[in-house]
Predict the structure of Essential MCU regulator, mitochondrial.
Amino acid sequence: MPFNGDNFKDFKEINKIRKENNKFKYIAVLITVIPGIILGGYMGKKLAQFLEVFDLYAPDVSEDD
């Protein structure tokens, strides 16, 4: 905050501020999120197989009809 009057030379006017392109932000989010979901699903599947092979955890398969 300037002490000697209003000195706004460091501020830009609102109409001169360049609008950012959100297209690349959406692409970056998709590139990050989709592989993360796929990788998490793959790791969960492999961990469940590992636990079942070594009898650490085996889901109880019972059909209640």
Notes: The first helix runs from residue 23 to 53. The chain has a mean pLDDT of 80.
